[in-house]
Structures are given as structure tokens and as C-alpha cells.
TrEMBL record, chain B:
GO terms for molecular function: transmembrane transporter activity. The keyword Signal does not apply. Keywords: Membrane, Transmembrane, Transmembrane helix. This is Membrane protein. The chain crosses the membrane at residues 12-31, 76-95, 107-129. InterPro entries: ECF_trnsprt_substrate-spec. Gene3D superfamilies: 1.10.1760.20. It comes from Lacrimispora celerecrescens.
TrEMBL record, chain C:
It is a multi-pass membrane protein. Keywords: Membrane, Transmembrane, Transmembrane helix. Its main location: membrane. It comes from Lacrimispora celerecrescens. It is found in: Membrane. InterPro entries: ABC/ECF_trnsptr_transmembrane (IPR003339). The chain crosses the membrane at residues 24-56, 62-83, 104-126, 236-254. This is Cobalt ABC transporter permease. GO terms for cellular component: plasma membrane.
């Protein structure tokens, strides 16, 4: 008998009409690594919650079918019992903290204490997991004072430490730096080798393709397919399902590199598989022309940062001696977790005050102004969308900014409607923002800042929780606003997204700028990338492996 | 009516209580920062009563005063644990009777809560501080009543009425506005009919 | 994050004393004078409290607490000194106001009671870390759910302050003036109430889910990270307090006879 058996699982949330899960049917063997893919609102998180018993025990609603885990029926087992078998890591790490513990160490120990694990064992496991997720140095910090990525690591560690047989992870790497997410995948794979069963929701298709044994493809609550990554990503209807295959597969499709198995045409989904088909690739490609030497755009300086210094705790400097000049080109800041990216943009926005140094915005020192006075010029979207929602109707929420800037109600309404259309949420205007999903809340947050029509737009990790379509929408916003002469500055962990939509790229590590320049240049500086725990975009890596000369950043660059 | 006191003691409730206590604290902070002649320290207790029912409301109220009393050394707060408990229960009952659906009901609830507070607080005031409440306006009335020779109990009662009823009125109006704005995702967690419908 | 607890981290005997022993002291200090009924018992306990506070090196932290309760004590003195119904004998005049002996005596009793309770609580509050208290309570058989409730209050209030700051940041990012004169800052407070309260409530949903998957409702016996039993010293202290209470009962009986 398989370890997990799902038969005709159906579920509907209370007060809703549509089924969130509709006839899910699959089996998982012990020690398998299963991926779940699908667009936003496909029902991925709902399925994860069904594994942990939260659906339906906690949320109630309407439930049908069966979900058996190791012989126990999930819907009928108390959650406290089920959680010893199934560990669930949430989509939003800020929500996973117990809220009763003062230190990271105690936070990770919390679950183990509840389960009555012997004390020595608790200490041992917590230590192990602190090491495993590279958060040892924060062990005595308050879990609420960590950066986004650090919080996510704590959340993962606290579940791993409980050592359940089945681990369900709901987009566990959304806020991690690229090497950090690679590490999480490696850790999880190692667990799978020891017989622990892994179920993971992810938007990073390249990762799913290379680590998963099988992928479950969901769409609008229905199960579309349950198969090997190769077969899933070779489907022709992926676009309609709102899923983008791995970059490797996109490239192979464009270049018609494939193999035939039985009656199916299969495209490679990982680097290794591609190398096996090396002979089908064209011998040379031109790629982008390398731009040597920086062509600064003069007279368009937006921000001028001089010898900036900042710390939260007196003995831990976050930003030291930073000099930087930002012009109107769309710019991405990339760098490891805790590098000080969020801190830097908060300083730019005036929300934090520098301990030393100056920031000039359009030649004016911003320390002379209040945040509200700058609001009409500099817009900032927070990393966690829940931090900036304070009305109970989406429309009202988006109108707050324009109204504060002194616009009339009609004007504000017009601006808000335009902004909502831009993010594709026109239909949600009358909803309570908190009733929306995380991906939509993030969009509401963006719309509410876009509506203020500021010269500068700062986005802190806008791609969190967004599916392929969401990313395209975001990319379009970046392009449209840049074309209108606005300055878009974004913090990102998604290198492919950076490569596709941003001209200038800044690498940050430990509060310093390691590298700065056009994407074509920065993404070939391997040493800096490594130091900042980053990776090259997938296309770039691919072309290097295949031995092409030249600069390649996106799949489009690989045209013959 | 048998649902009036029905309570589910699940994690959701044990999380609601500290949040409500925190809200009480915030309300008190607002009142003192803005120098309002109100307490505003039972917003959370009322919300607890409305979402979780009279029992949770009562626990919120009592725990609120006990925890603050024991940790901030504010023994004055400690004495009024009983009052807070009463307010939580009263608001919880009114909410279960469906009175918090409309504005008029909220006002009625405010009166009930205010009177409950008065009835419980007055004896406490008499026992512990000889009738005063510590609120300047209320105590002025008490002083006046004593000067004009009214009985201590009546003076203290008037003192309490003057302080508590308007305070609860404002409190419940704020609570009403907040409850109306809560998302369905949250409120459905505290709904009473906990049957899972079958789709088979 | 700033804590709301008044705990002062000092390494003294009083800090090391088991929380239960300190709670027992509160019980004795509050009940003995009420049982004994004589004013001098208040004095005795006030003296003991002061000694304890001095030995705990925290006497300075007590003054703000006393100052805080001063307004209420003064009101009581004014009202009863002037208007108490029992008032008969004028003690002294202050301008046009006549203060009476009976009222003042009555007020003195209430004032001493308040002061006594305050100091007794201070010995406990200033020297006990809330997290340790909760841990000890749970080890003594207190329900971990209630334990969670208490320790979570200590986390949630600083968190709400944090949320308040974040929301304030979000509001000023969107153009609402929150900096400047006192009036501007006070005005900025009002639009904060509703979002801070709503978002804390909404967080409770996520928090509840988080607790469930971390085995909060588990029937297993909880493990404690550190063992803390009543030591001989603590027991002696408690015995002493029990004697004081017994003494006050004896006194009461004697004065009755
Ligand atoms: N608590 C809830 N109450 C009501 N409806 C909900 C709730 N949670 C989710 N839904 C709805 O159920 C559907 C599936 O949501 P789910 O969160 O499972 O999607 P998802 O695939 O995880 O999406 P995402 O990629 O955005 O995380 C959506 O239509 C969503 O709006
Ligand atoms: N409120 C705070 N108090 C104390 N330290 C903080 C606080 N906020 C952030 N830090 C610390 O400052 C450093 C920089 O944090 P910041 O949030 O700027 O990182 P980041 O580059 O945005 O990381 P991430 O990619 O994980 O979001 C981190 O080490 C973090 O732990
Ligand atoms: Mg999801
Ligand atoms: Mg950040």
C-alpha cells in the first residue's frame, strides 16, 4: 500500500460557491519527492492544508473523498496527532511563528516541547536544524526582528525539527536568495533519500524539474496530470493552464531539441538532460553584444547616496560606507538574505534615518523632509503586503494614497481604477483585501502605490507568490512605468525576472555594493555572484554549459 | 437559546484571548496619549465576547486584569478583574442574541455592558477605595455627592455611571465598526455550526 | 522589540527566589493586614517590602510606580478628608477647606493599603521574568494552554506596537503626515486604531493555524527546556510567610477577646 492515497478529494471553503479542490486522485510512495505546480488559486495551498488536516478540521466547509496518510484518514484524525506524521511549512513565513517565544532557539523547540520529546533530544535536534538552515548566528535573536529570508529559514527549521514522516512545503523558498533556495532543495532531497516523503509547492519550475520524482499539475481545483517532470513540462497546453515550463524546456522547444519516447515528443527539463542532446543544438549562437564600458546617462540622477551608515542594534552594522548613484534606468537590487536590501530602500524612502551620511533625491537632502512630504515623489511597496493594508475595501485601499496627496475623490477614483486595471484586479474592487489571496494582496499593495503616480517606484520582492502570469503583469508594469520616465527600483531574488526586465543590476552583500552595472556585465561576474549567494540566470548557465560564446540572459537571446 | 454559552476551546480561542488583551492595552494607550477622559480599555474584551461568545469574553476580561495586575504591579487593575469579566460575559451574551448586527443593537449592548460594569464596580470601589474611581470627572461627581450628603453607595454609583456608560458607548461603537470590517476568512473561524458538509 | 514587562535583569537573591515564593509573599502582605486589622501591620509589611526591594537592588524602579498611584491616593485624601459622611472633628484648615480627622484616618487606611499592595507586587514584578513564571506555572501543573496565553500576551503587545509602527510607516509612505507638532502626531493616531486592531485579529487566524501544526493541542506531556523546582531556601521563605499570616490571625483573635 502506498504511504499516501488521495481518492476523489473534494473541498469547498465556507461561504464560497466553487470547489477549491475537485476530484484529486493520486498516490505517493514512501520517500518520494512530489512537486505541485499550478497557477495562482489553482488550489495548491488548499491541498497542502488538507494533508495537515487543517482542511477540513479547522476551516470546516464541505469535504468529500478520502486522504489516507499511513493508514490514517486525515479528515478524521485530530490535527495534534496528525502533525506528528505530517509537517506543513506555510506559504507566508511571517505567519508561522508561534508568537510566544523570545528567541529563535526556543521558537524552533516549541513544537518539540508540545510533542513531549525528551529534553536532550530537543537540544540536539534544534542545534542540527539551526546548522542545516544556516541560522546559527541568530539563535538568540527575537524571531520577529529577522529579515524576510531569515524568517523563512526559521519557519522551515521549526518544522524539520519535528521530524515528521511527510513534509509538506508550500512555496518554502519564495523569499530566499538563490543559493539559499538551492540549499533548501538539497536538504529536502537528502531527507527524501532517508525515507521521508516530500510534497512541495513551488513556482520555480527549474527546481521542481530537477528534484521531483513526479509532479502534480493543478488547475482551478482540478487535477490535470500526475506524471514525471519531463512529461508534464512537454505538454502543449501549459500556457492555457497558466504554467510556464522551465527555461531549459522553453529554449529546447524554440530550437526544436527533443527526443521521442513511444508516441510522445519529450523536451529536456534539466541541464543534465540537455547536455545529453547536445548534438541537436546549433553549433554557434550570437547572443547579446557585450557592452564594454558603462554608458552613464548624464543629468538623470535620481538618488545620490553618500557615505551612508545604518544599524538597528548598535553593535551590528547593517550598512557601512555606502556610496551609490541611482539614475532613471530600471534597476534591480539583488543579494543574499539579510544583506540590507530592505533596509537600504527604507532609507531611500526616509522611513529609516541614517546614522551617518546623506541621501539626496533630485539634489535635495531627504533628511530635511518628512516621509509624507516625499510620498508624492517616492512610492514604496512593502515586502509583506499585509503591512500596508488598512482599509476594508480594495477600492478604498487604493484610493488612500491619491486622496492623501490632495486629489479630489473623482480623480482618486480614476487613478485607483487605472492602477487596479494595470494589476488585473478590476473585479476585486469591492472585496475585503484580507479575503484575497496572498498573490492578489501583493498586487493590491502595488496598485495602491502605483495609483499615487510617483516619480520613483520601489518594489520590495514583488514576485513573491506570483505565478507565470503574475510575473508577466509585473514585468509589464516595470516597462510601462519606465517608458513614462519613472524610475523603478526593485529588490528581487528571481534572476530570470531581473535579466528580462531590468537594465541595471546592483549586487549587495553585507551592506556593501559588490557589483553594479548592466545585466550583461554583472551576471558574468561569477565571483561577486558567489559571494552574494546568487546564481546566474538559467539561460546564462545553460549557454555556458553548452559552450556558447557571448552574453545570454533570456531565452530570447538564444535565437539562431 | 441553548447555544448562548456554547464555547469551543480550540487553538483559535486561545490565540484570540491574548490578541484581545493586547487590543485592550492599545485602547488604554490611545486614551492616555490623546488625553481622553475615557478608559477605552475594554475594546478587546468586547471583541473577544463577540467572536468567541460569553465565556471567552469573560476569560478575556478577567485574564486581562489579572495579567496586567501581576506583571505591571498595577494592583488597582487587579481589583477590577471581576468587572472586566462581567463586561465580557454581557457583551458575549448580547452578541449571541444577535444584537451586534445593527447599530441600534450595538448601542443597546453598550448600555447593558455599561450597567454591568457599574453594578460590579460600585461595591469594589466602596470596599477598596472608599468610593472613588480614579477618574477625575467621576470623582468630581463623587465629591459633590458627598458634600451634599448623599449616601456613599449612591455617590459611588453615580460616579461609576458617569464614567462607565459613555466609555462603553464609545468602545462599542469602535468595536462595531471593526467587527463590520473583518474579513469572512476570519469570522468563519469562530462560527458556531461546526459541521463539515459532505460532498460524497 | 521593547518588552512591556517591568522585569529588571539583576542577579540577586530576590531574583533567584522561586516565583511561587514571591507570590506567597504577596498573599501574606495583602491578607495579613486585612486579617489583623491593625494599622501597624501595614507598617510592618511596608518595611519588609522595602527591605526586600533594597536587597534586590531595585528600589529605584519602584518610585515611578509609587508616583503613578499618587494621584488616586491624593484624590482619596481630598474627598474623604473633606466630605466623608462620618466627618465630625476638624483637624486643620487649608484656605477655605476644612479637613476632618475621621475622613483622613479612613483615607490613611486606604492609602496604606494601596501602597502596601503596590510594594508587595513590585517585589514580584520587578524580579520575575514572565517567561520563567509561565514555565514554572506549567511545571507545577498549570495548563500549557493558559501558559501560552500569558506568554503570548507578552509577545503580542510589543508586536502590536511593531504593527502600529509599520502601519504608521505605511500611512506616511502614502502621504499622511505623522511627523511634526504634538497635534499632528495625535491626529495621526486616530486612523491607526482600526487597522491595528483588525490586523492583529487577522493575524490570530494565521497564528492559530501555526499553533495547530506545531502540536499545540497535543495530548502528550509537554517537555520543559529547563527544570526548576522549589529549593530549600524557597520553602523556608514560604514557611516564614505562613507564620506571619498565622500571627495576624492570632492577633485578631486576641484583640477580639
Ligand atoms: N480561507 C479561505 N476561504 C475561502 N476561500 C479560500 C480560502 N483560502 C483559499 N480560498 C480560495 O480557494 C481557491 C484555492 O486557493 P489556494 O490558496 O489553495 O490556491 P493556490 O494554488 O495555493 O494559489 P497561490 O499560488 O496564490 O498560492 C482560491 O480560489 C481561493 O480564493
Ligand atoms: N527591526 C530590526 N531589528 C534588528 N535587526 C533587524 C531588524 N530588521 C532587520 N534587521 C537585521 O538587519 C539585517 C538586514 O535586514 P534587511 O531586512 O535589510 O535584509 P534584506 O537584504 O532585505 O534580506 P531579505 O532578502 O531576507 O529580505 C538582517 O541581518 C536583519 O536580521
Ligand atoms: Mg498558495
Ligand atoms: Mg528584505
Amino acid at each position: 500500500m502506498a504511504l499516501i492515497e488521495v481518492t476523489n478529494l473534494k473541498y469547498r471553503y465556507p461561504h464560497t460557491e466553487n470547489l477549491a479542490l475537485d476530484g484529486i486522485d493520486f498516490k505517493v510512495e514512501k520517500g518520494q519527492f512530489i512537486g505541485i505546480a499550478g497557477e495562482n488559486k489553482a488550489g495548491k495551498s488548499t491541498l497542502c492544508q488538507a494533508f495537515a488536516g487543517l482542511v477540513p478540521t479547522m476551516f470546516r466547509g464541505a469535504y468529500g473523498g478520502k486522504l489516507l496518510i499511513d493508514g490514517a484518514e486525515a479528515a478524521k484524525t485530530p490535527i495534534a496527532e496528525l502533525c506528528q506524521k505530517v509537517g506543513l511549512v506555510f506559504q507566508n513565513p511571517f505567519n508561522q511563528l508561534s508568537g510566544a517565544k523570545d528567541t529563535v532557539f526556543e521558537e524552533i523547540a516549541f513544537g518539540l516541547q508540545n510533542l513531549g520529546i525528551p529534553r536532550e533530544e530537543i537540544f540536539k535536534r534544534v542545534e542540527e536544524n539551526l546548522k542545516l538552515l544556516d541560522i546559527e548566528e541568530y539563535r538568540d535573536r527575537n524571531p520577529f526582528d529577522l529579515s524576510g529570508g531569515q524568517t523563512q529559514r526559521v519557519a522551515i527549521a521549526s518544522i524539520l525539527a519535528m521530524e515528521p514522516q511527510v513534509i509538506v512545503l508550500d512555496e518554502p523558498t519564495s523569499q530566499l536568495d538563490p543559493q539559499g533556495s538551492e540549499e533548501v532543495f538539497r536538504v529536502v532531497e537528502k531527507l527524501a533519500k532517508t525515507g521521508i516523503t516530500i510534497i512541495m509547492v513551488e513556482q520555480k519550475m527549474e527546481k521542481l524539474a530537477s528534484y521531483c520524482d513526479k509532479i502534480l499539475l493543478l488547475h482551478k481545483g482540478k487535477q490535470i496530470a500526475y506524471d514525471t517532470p519531463e512529461r508534464i513540462f512537454s505538454r502543449d497546453d501549459l500556457e492555457e493552464l497558466g504554467v510556464k515550463p522551465p527555461v531549459y524546456t522553453q529554449v529546447c522547444r524554440a530550437l526544436e531539441v527533443s527526443r521521442i519516447e513511444g508516441e510522445d515528443r519529450l523536451y529536456p527539463v534539466t541541464l543534465a538532460q540537455m547536455e545529453r542532446l547536445r548534438d541537436q543544438f546549433p553549433p554557434t549562437l550570437t547572443g547579446r553584444t557585450f557592452v564594454n564600458g558603462e554608458q552613464e546617462i548624464d543629468g538623470q540622477e535620481v538618488f545620490q547616496i553618500q557615505d551612508l551608515k545604518f544599524h538597528y542594534l548598535p553593535d551590528i552594522p547593517v550598512i557601512e560606507h555606502l556610496d551609490l548613484c541611482l539614475d532613471a534606468r530600471p534597476t534591480a537590487i539583488i543579494g543574499q538574505n539579510g544583506a540590507g536590501k530592505t533596509t537600504l530602500v527604507k532609507l531611500l524612502k526616509g522611513l529609516l534615518k541614517p546614522n551617518a551620511g546623506n541621501i539626496f533625491f533630485e539634489d535635495e537632502d531627504i533628511s530635511q523632509k518628512t516621509v509624507a512630504q516625499l510620498a508624492g515623489k517616492v512610492g514604496y511597496v512593502f515586502q509583506n503586503p499585509d503591512d500596508q493594508i488598512f482599509k476594508n475595501r480594495v477600492m478604498e485601499e487604493v484610493m488612500v494614497g491619491p486622496l492623501n496627496l490632495g486629489k479630489s475623490r473623482e480623480e482618486a477614483q480614476k487613478l485607483a481604477a487605472d492602477a487596479l486595471e494595470m494589476v488585473g484586479l478590476t473585479d476585486a474592487a469591492e472585496e475585503n483585501p484580507y479575503d484575497l489571496d496572498l498573490s492578489e494582496r501583493k498586487m493590491v499593495a502595488i496598485a495602491s502605490v502605483v495609483a499615487m503616480d510617483t516619480k520613483v517606484l520601489i518594489l520590495d520582492e514583488p514576485t513573491i507568490a506570483q505565478d507565470a502570469n503574475g510575473r508577466v503583469v509585473l514585468g509589464r508594469i516595470v516597462q510601462t512605468l519606465s517608458k513614462k520616465g519613472k524610475f523603478v527600483l526593485a529588490i528581487l531574488h528571481d534572476m530570470d525576472f531581473v535579466a528580462e526586465y531590468f537594465e541595471r543590476v546592483i549586487i549587495m552583500a553585507h551592506g556593501k555594493v559588490l557589483s553594479d552595472g548592466l545585466g550583461e556585465k554583472v551576471f558574468y561576474e561569477k565571483e561577486s555572484l558567489l559571494k552574494a549567494r546568487l546564481e546566474q540566470p538559467h539561460t546564462t548557465r545553460l549557454c555556458e554549459r553548452l559552450g556558447y560564446e557571448g552574453a545570454f540572459l533570456t531565452a530570447e537571446d538564444m535565437k539562431v | 437559546m441553548k447555544n448562548l454559552f456554547k464555547t469551543k476551546l480550540n487553538a483559535a480561542c486561545f490565540v484570540l484571548i491574548p490578541a484581545c488583551i493586547g487590543i485592550n492595552y492599545l485602547g488604554k494607550l490611545f486614551a492616555s496619549v490623546l488625553k481622553l477622559p475615557l478608559w477605552l480599555d475594554s475594546i478587546g474584551t468586547c471583541i473577544g465576547g463577540i467572536l468567541g461568545g460569553p465565556i471567552i469574553g469573560g476569560i478575556c476580561g478577567a485574564a486581562n486584569n489579572l495579567i496586567y495586575g501581576f506583571t505591571t504591579g498595577d494592583s488597582i487593575t487587579l481589583v477590577y478583574a471581576l468587572t472586566s469579566l462581567g463586561i465580557g460575559v454581557a457583551v458575549g451574551i448580547m452578541a449571541r442574541l444577535g444584537r451586534m448586527e445593527k447599530l441600534s443593537g450595538a448601542i443597546l449592548t453598550a448600555c447593558v455592558a455599561g450597567l454591568t460594569a457599574v453594578v460590579i464596580s460600585t461595591p469594589l470601589n466602596l470596599i477598596f477605595w472608599g468610593g472613588t474611581t480614579g477618574n477625575i470627572w467621576g470623582d468630581a461627581v463623587f465629591a459633590w455627592s458627598q458634600a451634599s450628603g448623599l449616601p456613599v453607595a449612591l455617590g459611588s454609583f453615580l460616579d461609576e455611571v458617569l464614567v462607565d456608560v459613555p466609555d462603553k458607548l464609545i468602545t462599542l461603537l469602535i468595536v462595531y465598526a471593526i467587527i463590520k470590517g473583518l474579513p469572512k476568512k476570519l469570522t468563519s473561524l469562530y462560527e458556531l455550526d461546526d459541521e463539515v458538509a459532505s460532498l460524497d | 522589540m521593547k518588552s512591556i514587562s517591568l522585569y529588571v535583569d539583576k542577579d540577586t537573591c530576590l531574583t533567584r527566589l522561586h516565583p511561587f515564593a514571591k507570590m506567597f509573599y504577596i498573599l501574606a502582605a495583602v491578607s495579613a493586614p486585612l486579617i489583623g486589622g491593625a494599622l501597624w501591620i501595614y507598617g510592618l509589611f511596608l518595611a519588609i517590602s522595602l527591605c526586600l526591594l533594597i536587597s534586590g537592588k531595585i528600589i529605584r524602579k519602584v518610585f515611578p510606580l509609587i508616583a503613578f498611584s499618587f494621584t488616586i491616593i491624593i484624590t482619596i485624601f481630598l474627598i474623604h478628608g473633606l466630605f466623608n459622611q462620618e466627618n465630625q472633628k476638624v483637624l486643620f484648615h487649608l484656605g477655605p477647606l476644612a479637613f476632618y480627622e475621621e475622613g483622613l484616618l479612613y483615607a490613611a487606611r486606604i492609602g496604606l493599603n494601596i501602597l502596601n499592595m503596590l510594594l508587595a507586587f513590585a517585589t514580584f514584578v520587578l524580579t520575575t521574568k514572565p517567561a520563567d513564571l509561565v514555565d514554572d506555572l506549567e511545571q507545577a501543573g498549570f495548563s500549557p494552554r493558559f501558559g501560552y496565553m500569558i506568554s503570548s500576551v507578552f509577545q503580542i503587545i510589543p508586536q502590536m506596537m511593531g504593527t502600529m509602527n509599520t502601519i504608521m510607516d505605511a500611512q506616511r509612505s502614502r502621504g499622511m503626515e505623522t511627523e511634526g507638532s504634538l497635534f499632528v502626531r495625535a491626529k495621526a493616531f486616530i486612523p491607526l486604531i482600526s487597522p491595528v486592531v483588525s490586523s492583529s485579529l487577522i493575524n490570530t487566524r494565521e497564528r492559530a493555524i501555526a499553533l495547530e501544526v506545531r502540536g499545540f493541542d497535543s495530548k502528550n506531556k509537554k517537555t520543559f527546556l529547563r527544570e526548576h523546582k522549589l529549593a530549600g531556601k524557597d520553602k523556608t521563605f514560604m514557611l516564614l510567610m505562613a507564620l506571619l499570616i498565622a500571627g495576624s490571625i492570632v492577633w485578631r483573635v486576641l484583640t477580639w477577646l
